[in-house]
Amino acid sequence: MVDIIVVGAGIAGLTASIKACDNGANVSLISPDYSERSQSVMAMGGINAALNTKGENDSTDQHFTDTLNGGCKINNEKAVEMLTSDAPQIIDWLERIGTSFSRDANGNVDIRNFGGQKKKRTVYAGSRTGKQIVSALVSSCRKRETEGKIKRFVGYRFLSLIFTDENECCGINCIHEDTQELRSFIGDAVIIATGGYNSLFGKILGSTQNDGFATAKLFTQGVILANLEMVQYHPTTVKTPQKRMLITEAARGEGGKLFVMKDGKPWYFMKDFYPELADLMPRDVVSRSIFKVSDGGKKDVFLDLTHLDEYTVKVKLDEVYEICEKYLNLNPLKTPIPIFPAVHYFMGGIQTNENHKTNIKGLYAAGECSCQYHGANRLGGNSLLGAVHGGWISAENAVLEKPKGNVINSIDEELESFKSYAPKDKSLQDTLSEISQIMNDSMGIYRNEGDLMAALDRLDNLDTNVNAKYYDYLKVKLLVILSKASILSALERKESRGAHQRTDYPESDDRYKKSICAMYDDGEIVIT
Hints:
Helix content: 25-40%
CATH topology of the domain at 234-342: Flavocytochrome C3, Chain A, domain 1
Low-confidence stretches: none
Distance between the termini: 39 Å
Strand order of the largest sheet: 13-12-17-16-14-15
Strand content: 15-25%
Radius of gyration: 22 Å
Shape: globular
Mean pLDDT: 96
CATH architecture of the domain at 234-342: Alpha-Beta Complex
Structural class: alpha/beta
C-alpha cells in the first residue's frame, strides 16, 4: 500500500487526497484549519471549460490558445494542453460528486463570459463557485475518511521536508499551532497544496492561512521556484475596515462596465482602449488601465452595474450584492461601486512540470503554490480549474513513487532547532508589516530598478529576531528570503510582460520569453 502525504486542504489538496485514495493509496491530509476555512471558498466567479453549449463554436484548442496568450506565452505548453483538454471531464466529475452549478434555460450547466476569453466558457454557481466545489469535495473526502482511507490532521503547520540518503522526499515535519507539538509524517510521496504567499503583501484579498511559509522553506531545502515576479493585481476590489475585498470578474462578465469621471460625465474607458473585449480584457491589462486613468490612484474609478437587471445582480451576482450592502452601504443597482486593483494571485511559485513533479523526487505541488499553467498572467476561471486539475494529476503520479533510500532527517533536527530558539523583543506584527510595506512599495503594478534595489537594501537591514512562537519566528526569516527571491527575479526580467511591468524597460523582449528561476545554494539566492 502506498502512503501519500497531502499538505493543504483547499480544492487542490482535497482533490489530490480523493484521487490518491481512489488510486489505491492511504492518505494523510494535513492542514492548519478545516477545508471550509480555506482560501478556495473565497473564489466567486467560476471555473473554465470549453463546453460549447452556447453555439459559439468554442473548443479546448481555443481555451488553450487563450490561456497561452493571457500568460504572454511563458506558460508550460504541455501543462496548459493537459489543463484545457481535461477541463470538460473535470466539470463532469465535479457535477457527479455533487457540485451544484447554475443551469441555463435548457438545463445545461450554465457558462458566462470572463476576462481574456472571446467565448463563454466559465461555469459558475451564482457567485459562490468556490464554496460549492469545496462542499462537494469535502463530502467526497469524508466518505473516504469514514472508510479509513484518508486521515485528517487539523491544526498542524508544515515545518520542513524529510529526505532519504538518495535525496528523495519521504515525509514532512509539522508543528501543532495550539499545543506546539512537533510531529513527523513518513510516506512514499508528498503533495504540497498550500496556496500562494499572501503574507508577503500583507492584508490582501486572500486568506491569512496562505502565508508562504511552505514555499519559502521548500526553497531553502533545494526546491526550484519560478516566475516569482509575476504577481496578479485583480482590477476590481473594494476597501473595507478589515481589508480589501474582491468584486468578482463575473460582474464584468455579466455586463458591468468601468468608468472614471471626465468633463463632468462618466467615461467608459475600456471600450475606447480595447474595442473588441473592452472590460473583459485580461486582468493585467485592466489593472494597468485603471491605474492609468486614475492617475496612479488619485482619481476615483467605478464599476457600474446600474444598467443591469435585478435578477442578474441579486441572483447571479449575489455575493457582490451582499458585499456592497454589508461593507459599503450601497445598492449596486442604484450606485456605482468604487474600485481599485489589489494583489490577488501569484502566478509564480514552486516550479513543476506537466505532471506536477518538482525537481525533488517524491515531491509534488498543486494549486496556487505551483507554477506552470498561468505564465505572466492568469485568466479568470483558470485558478479553480488549475487547482482541481493539479490535485488530480499530482495524485495520479505520486501514487507511483516508492523511495529507494533510507530516512536521514526526521524530527530530531527540528527538535534541536525548537529547543534552541529564543524569542526576542521585536514585535511580530510590526515586522510582518515592514516586510509587506517593502513589497508593496517595490512590487506594485509598475516597478523600476531603483525601487527594487532599495527594497533589497531594506530587507538586508531588517531585524528578523521577533517575539513569537517557533513557527512565526521561523516564518519571518523565511519570508525575507522569499521576498528577496521575488525582487531579484523582478530585477532579472528586464522587460515588461503581463503582470510584470518595468517603467525602465517598457517593452517586451523575446530574450525573456521564458521562466525566471530561483534556486537557493549554500545560503545564496541564484537567479537563472
